[in-house]
Specification:
By secondary structure, the chain is mainly alpha-helical. It has 3 domains: about 1-45, no CATH class; about 50-80, no CATH class; about 85-110. It has helices spanning about 25-35, 35-50, 50-65, 65-80, 80-105; strands spanning about 5, 10. A two-stranded antiparallel ribbon has the order 1-2. Helix 1 (about 25-35) crosses helix 2. The protein starts with a strand and ends in an 8-residue tail after the last helix. About 0% of the residues are buried. The model has no long low-confidence stretch (mean pLDDT about 90). The structure holds zinc ion (ZN). The site of zinc ion has 8 residues, from loops. Zinc ion (ZN) binds near residues 5 and 21.
Length: about 110
């Protein structure tokens, strides 16, 4: 008897009576959606434990693929230049306003 996966909807043949997902990956995604905090804590712990290894791996990857990464970044910037500049201008304007508000004593920390 065929059943549909609760996550992706693919029909599958269950190997056990209580099987609800077609593959481990679908179960993991559904589990993390339902137990978000537990999964986030586990990810954070894992990341902290492997931070040095990750940094090393990323540096090696960047060194090995530098020309390709540079090319991709340049292409991305060229294609999205207008949007990037607009976002930067908005950020700067907001920062200017924050600084002005700080000077005039509106919001932020109070003067001593
Ligand atoms: Zn599935």
């Amino acid at each position: 008897m065929s059943r549909r996966c609760l996550h992706c909807g693919t029909p599958f043949e269950p190997t056990k009576g209580n099987q609800r997902y077609c593959k481990k990956k679908c179960y993991a995604v559904a589990y993390c959606a339902a137990n978000w905090e537990r999964c986030a804590a586990r990810r954070a712990a894992n990341r902290a434990a492997n931070r040095a290894r990750e940094v090393k791996y990323q540096a090696a990857y960047y060194a090995a693929n530098r020309p390709r990464i540079t090319k991709l970044k340049t292409a991305h910037y060229t294609a999205n230049r207008a949007a990037i500049l607009k976002q930067k201008a908005a950020y700067r304007a907001a920062k200017r306003k924050r600084l002005k508000d700080l000077k005039t004593g509106k919001g932020g920390r109070t003067k001593r």
